[in-house]
Amino acid sequence: MVRILFAAELPMKVRYDMVCCYVVRPGPDGILKQLLQLRRAKDDFLGGVWSTVRGRIEGDETAWAAALRELREEAGLAPLEFYQLDTVDTFYLHADDCLWHCPGFCAVVAPDAMVKLNEEHDAHRWIERSQIDKEFLWPGERAQLGELAREILDNGPARPYLRIRLSNGDFAP
Fold this sequence. Notes:
By secondary structure, the protein is an alpha+beta fold. It has helices spanning 63-75, 132-135, 139-153, 159-162; strands spanning 13-15, 18-26, 32-40, 50-51, 53-56, 81-93, 98-108, 121-128. Strands 1, 2, 3, 4, 5, 6, 7 and 8 form an eight-stranded mixed β-sheet that branches.
């Protein structure tokens, strides 16, 4: 007989209320290939670390709505196109003995989009696609970026099905 354990019965905590949002813009040649990184402020959690837009889902907010909100709050950006990723970033944090599951999203912004950082970050930079493995610290981010490159940047077969159609109200920065 197989017994299914529910999250409340697990010996460690399991959370799924965080999202990550990768921001992509076209390079000078018009091809989507530059990815945004934000540097965590020195006095904040993981101070000095370069990462993507991340944040918590609030209340009864959907994961995709949380990603859009975090994109506005952390970088002051609104997407021209928006996609979900199939790959979920799963990682363990020993400090709180917690296993995290973070759905990923991709926001395509204009080549001249202006980044406006909030207090959680003190700098931003655009990374060329060819530098993903060197410049993105976390293995889970690199796994999600592999899918993003294949399916969204390279127009993979799943791209049209991963796209989230947004209403005008979803674009306001």
